[in-house]
Amino acid sequence: MASQDKFTSRSPLLRLPCELKRYVMANLNITSLYALITTCKEFYDINKSSKGFILRAITTNALGDALPWAMALHAARRADWGTTLPRHSRGELLDQIHKFGRRYLNRNNKTLIYPEDFSFSLASELISFHSIVEKFSLKFMEETTSDMYFHYFRGHPIPKPTNTETGRVQLTFYCMEISRELLPFYVTQPDELEDNERPWQMLWHYFAPWENRIAEAISCLFLDKLIDNAVSRGLIMMGGSAYYEWYTVLGLRGFDKLADDEFVSRNAANIEAGQKFFRCVCYFALGESGFTWLRPVGGNLMVRSFNMDHLLARFPQEENGSCDNWYFTIISEQHNPQYAGFQPLPDETVWWDRARINAVFPGILPSIAEIQDMAEGNVYIQDFFEPEVDYCKEIGY
Which of these, 124, 130, 208, 285, could form a disulfide with 315 (CB 3.0-4.6 Å)? Predict the structure, then answer.
């Protein structure tokens, strides 16, 4: 007791009121909190009695707006339904996707994240994985931006990604991880009817069409390049399917360990021996234009209205550069002769804010009012569409 009194008298921190101690703890990082509560019983007791408030605060500080998506990914990793027949029929999988989507992916109904749900293991898992998302988001943004500035804006300084650009890319990485956790393999054989992939397509319509485009850019312009080095070193012998198989099984964590030769060799051998039906597309829905996010006209699924009020209501944006880029691209595809046969802006720009687009490609992206004028009186007509599904109606937006 004398020793404890002596320690207390030497520590100004221990003399603080309990509420201030809790405030200090809530503003530590997860590693420092663990060190504190494992070396001081008083702080251990405060953390124990806080019922998760401190851990939730620390996790919120670390993840910010990404916390709901991290919790959705956590739930996806623990989903108790499989993805291959005959365990679940297509209809059963669709039901499961709707249940998951309505609970975790509806941005107009924020999932309540209760303090008592937080434990050290959960907080550590969320924060650890988010650091990987931050790392790869930054790499992707740096790589694609430097390419664009080099080719189109050489000599100008490259502004750092804005908060909205960073958040947009991070959210897309979470979308990709959620999708690979829930539906990592084909529902049936990959050479069977496309309609069997309705669960996959439906899941991706819980995300925005411009996020779909960002996922495509991440897949085709970034992640496949990262694995090329391991392939060239002879550590991965899976041919052209290497990216899909590696990502399906190991996700972003697997890409984070590509420098570990022993890890790569061991997992590549396991994947090759597994003989699973991996997807032959990366983690975005088929149909680059994203016309399936538009509402049908008169019940005809091949004809879509350019009115996107339902999308703006479902996917509210803090900054609309990525949304406007997609909207202008899909309208230009059929109604802008200036860009017949190719898209107005490079794929590398799909995550950019409008200010960055206007700086590097001045005069290309019209104002939203001008884009709406282009859309007025026009529709999007698709010659072939399978499966014939009104995703917006089924999901409810």
Answer: 208
